[in-house]
Fold each of these.
Amino acid sequence: MADGFLVPSLLNLQAEQGVIGGLMFSGDLIDRIGPLRAEHFSEPVYGAIFERATGLIRQGRSADPVILNSAMAADARLEQIGGLDHLSDLMGAAPPVFVAGDYAKTVVDLALRRAVIEQARALQDMANFDHDRPADEIAALGERMLSEAVDGAAQAPSLLTGGDAIAEALEHAEQFGSTPEFVSGLVDLDRMLSGFQRGELTILAGRPGMGKSIVGLAIAVNNALRGVGCSYFSLEMSARSLGLRLACDLSYRRGGFGRQSWGPTLKRLATNECHPEELAAVREAQKKVSASPLRIDTRAGLTLAQIELSLRRQFREWRARGVTPGPVVIDHLGLVRPDRDRKGSKYAETADVSRGLAEMAKRLNVPAIALCQLNRSVESRDDKRPQLSDLREAGQLEEDARMVMLLHRPAYYFKAPPKETFEQEAERLTTEAKERNLLRVIVAKNSNGPVGEAEAFVDVSRSVVRDRDAQP
């Protein structure tokens, strides 16, 4: 590269001509061109010819020089390079189909290299002249720009027909059937939601003490144990705190048929007061989760750019190992540092982070689950069940999220009244016994299906959430 111009090795007109000649000679080549698109051609007129030729072939028509020349009669660029005579020459020099397929790969590869150089130049200018951006933000943005350049060159066209969209939906349904691709780990909830969807933001909200982190971590763990790559960003808890929660959850044994539930509590594990059998179960849990593609990041004050940078690097590693990247859990949304200075406006900061998470989920094509605090209005009501209006900055979060789930744990509000009769006390204690381990997951918004409520079993002392009626 010199004086801002591309070196000749980044251009290969012979390969571009070979692909076009091959398409005119045999429409079967269309099955060998892979992600090749018109914009991959360095010569715009060849990109236009390619687009028209593939369009004719997909309609079941021939793309020979005469038909192609007629189809492009309104494009003066074809006449400028020789019109029908040039097309005939290209067809006459067409390589065998399998060779033309290799030419198509060459055209895509060179387009990718040119895109990388273009983005690298833009990044260099940004580093040199944009002094308002911190260096780490420029680095994160640069990695995203390069990743998008690579992904864009390697992917199929972004504009689909309605039929293509239906075919994709049917293919997904046939592949996963009644078992969602990404699960919550709770059967009733997964049945209602059909699991978490790629490219969509889910808000998981509740007041403090409702079990948001328990549910968020359970989502990551349940998917990771199925072999799906999951990332958990804890902007509040330390690695030690998360480790205690993981250990207690994975070594827990649910009671049933007259047996007591079994497993270390967070307190006993933290103070080394566990029985030898419990410690043995914790070590087995450690081996189990270590073998899974679960990754945890406990850095505080991360921006969305830093989160996406970390995810892109991890996704490349997983894909190299054949692991499918899956849900990203953010704990919690209010602690994500905005990329832009909003002069202390919490509403504007929350809106930026919410919109940014929704866009990141689409770019990375994975579900994003953001934990979120509810405002205090729920505490002032007799009925403590949360509502959509209890979301902080409710309008923006509700708009950006495809799903909103609200958590309600009745036991958190257990409190004996100052005076009650014996009968009232007996009734209260009976109700509390039934609801002591009850967690209500209220699906307040679901763009892909019904809203409603699912009940689950929760043991906060052990950081455990399970199906309500599950037995060992």
Amino acid sequence: MPKINLTCVPKLFLIGSLLFVIQCGNTDLQESRTLIREVQMKFAPDKRVSIFDIQADRESGTLILQGETNIPEVIPALAKKIEAAQLNARLDITILPVEELADSQYGIVNLSVTNLRAKPDRGSELVTQAIMGTPVRRYKSDDYWDLIQTPDGYLGWVDRGTVVWMDQGGFDTWRSAKRCIFTAPFGLVFSPNNGERQTISDLVVGSILETEGISGNNWIVRLPDGRQGMIPRDQAVDFTKWVQTQQAKPAMVITRAKTFLGFPYLWGGTSSKGFDCSGFTKTVYFMNGIVLPRDASQQVKTGQLVTREVNTNLMKPGDLVFFGRRATADRPEKATHVGIYLGDTEFIHSSGKVKINSFDSTRTNYNDYRYTHFLQARRVLTDTTIPQIRKMNWYQLDTEKRPS
């Protein structure tokens, strides 16, 4: 471990932030920036799922490495590299979440769909979505916005009013509560009053709600903010039983995928209100108990490679099929689109809308563009390393583990 000299630490010390001095040799600004990049490539190569904003600069002649990250291991790794390089530098790096959020860092999405944006601005790019009942973690705030992370690891800014925030105890209570999962494409939560039925929220497939059980033909449910209502009995199932019995099979994946035929394409969309290509595959597999990474370029790194050519003899129903830019001598392969292979040369994907195309040029639904831009097929249904909802601490309480 590097030698740490605390004599230069200010008396006003922010809890949650590490501030110390490493006394070594000569200072070199450019070398410190190289070391930062090395640490980033090891611990946080993908900014979509990791927070790593650390810069090197000089202040009054002192080399300072400052910023923030949500990966605690970054600090000792960076300190070790600085010592080995014999640099005289001060590290002032905050480990997120910030201390003021310690008692409210967990949350449950309270709208049928909430938008996650690249920046805390409604005009910023829609990077993904989270649906009602999705557990999230908050790292920092900016006015009316919160930077959150979803169970698939994706980061984004949400409007604060769309999530109900709670402390560790509240989150543990939610994870151990009796819940149901909504299985219809769309639906409504109605007021339980005996008079005229009043809508209190809409729902999309995959929404998770606390429940008091079934009364007559309805589930009695409670939204994250405490509002009570009811949904038709045939539109939801017990969450715990659903989680425990989910065994993703090709036929089940295909059946679920086809229920979304004709649904519109939406950039950044991951709900039945609108899907982008990877949002579609992610939702289909989620409803079969599997949590895929968010983007096509991430999903292509999961599962086992089946083929890099269009070979329908090797592909099996349920395989993910990827399209995009082939590798060249100057550029690596880049997956920009994904679908699900159905068998008999056909695949289903979201492009304009959810539709079925074929790799067979004699078929009326043949898609030459996808055929010529095919990259590979990957098998995920047999890959036990891909997170399964029934094993994720995000959704069920395990006091020995915490979401991170």
